Amino acid sequence: MSVTPAQFAIDAATGDPAVRTVTFPGASAVGDLILIFLGISGGAVTSVIDDLGNWLTKLGDTDIVGTNSHAECWYYLNPVAGTRTITVKIPASSGFATGLSYSSVDQRQPIGLAVPTTITASGSPVSHTISPVRAGKLVTYGFSTGNATSITVTDAGYTVRNATSQYVHCEADIDVPEGSTTTHWSSNGTGTVQWLLWQLVLQERGVPDKTPWGE
């Protein structure tokens, strides 16, 4: 059984500028993997907790040097079954959160490869290449600045989920084989466009491991 997208959700208005909430539209199942991608302007996230008080685990973060643009990725493996709401506390009002969940992931090593990167380019498009040593589900996430109101993955075959908040951002996924895969992004931003991108390869349950988590 291959890794399967289960749900997608974006942050909702809460009345508190320092809080973002992501409520999934349906019930999560035991064994799922929840991913939360965060983009903020200034500072770092202070907490990411579900509605039962369980903390998510931070996978990593990245910044655009010389700016206050900051992105983080958090995950929650094997959540308690039910409709989950993730609450994110940030130090400033400029921020957003998006969430995805996946089923049939490896319970010991769900994330076989995680590669954040930043790109500063004049115009568009930009590309990002990764080289997984094991086939899986490539989850790619990005947001950009530079007056952009629309960004997307331009390659065929991806399931693309776009959402607009205080920044424009995009999530997409596709099944990938072992070897090199390049994802191409396009933005309608003008002038210098700054990108924060994440590429994650999720590993399928029941397939032997080939690479340590995070490498």
Give the topology:
Elements: E1 4-12, E2 19-23, E3 33-41, E4 47-50, E5 57-63, E6 69-77, E7 85-89, E8 95-103, E9 111-122, E10 126-130, E11 136-144, E12 151-153, E13 159-164, E14 168-176, E15 181-187, E16 192-202
Antiparallel strand pairs: 1-2, 1-8, 2-7, 3-6, 3-8, 4-7, 5-6, 9-16, 10-15, 11-14, 11-16, 12-15, 13-14
How would you characterize the largest beta sheet?
Answer: 8 strands, antiparallel
Radius of gyration from the alpha-carbon trace, in angstroms: 16 Å
Structural class, judged by helices and strands?
mainly beta
Let me know the average pLDDT.
80
Instruction: Domain count, please report it.
Output: 1
Strand arrangement within the widest β-sheet reads 4-7-2-1-8-3-6-5
Query: What sequence of helices (H) and strands (E) makes up the elements?
Result: EEEEEEEEEEEEEEEE
Percentage beta strand: over 45%
**N-to-C CA distance:** 24 Å
Contiguous low-pLDDT stretches (5 residues minimum) are 210-215
Q: Strand tally, please?
A: 16
The portion of residues assigned to helices is under 10%
Shape: globular
Total of DSSP H or I helical runs spanning 4+ residues: 0
